[in-house]
Write a structure and sequence with these properties.
The chain has about 100 residues and is an all-beta fold. The protein has one domain: predicted glycosyltransferase like domains (Thrombin, subunit H), CATH 2.40.10.220. Helices cover about 0% and strands about 55% of the residues. A hairpin with a 3-residue loop joins β2 and β3.
């Protein structure tokens, strides 16, 4: 049974991301690459194979759009991190979407 009331869709695709700086500073100049596992209208789950992200961290993601050379920049918050194997983590993200 699904824990959440929001349906998630499988969307396996590589994605780049950058950690945001503290106090609204620009993101880190270095980017990392993870693998999207699934996505919903509220967030996504990703496989990360580098240093794990911390819960509460804000990152700038670049989500690839299927069938186009376009990526969608979205700020996301790390909601949970689960180590699945040595050096590999599943990470849950909440999209930080403006209202209004």
């Amino acid at each position: 049974m699904e824990k959440r009331g929001i349906h998630r869709f499988a969307y396996v695709h590589p994605m780049s991301y950058a950690r945001m700086g503290r106090h609204g500073r620009l993101p880190s100049p270095s980017t990392s690459v993870g693998q999207i596992i699934n996505v919903s209208n509220m967030g996504m789950q990703m496989l990360v194979g580098e240093t794990p992200l911390e819960t509460g961290a804000v990152i700038q993601t670049h989500i690839p759009m299927a069938g186009t050379p376009v990526t969608l920049p979205v700020l996301s918050e790390v909601r949970w991190v689960k180590e699945i194997a040595p050096g590999q983590w599943h990470v849950g993200f909440l999209f930080l979407l403006g209202k209004g």
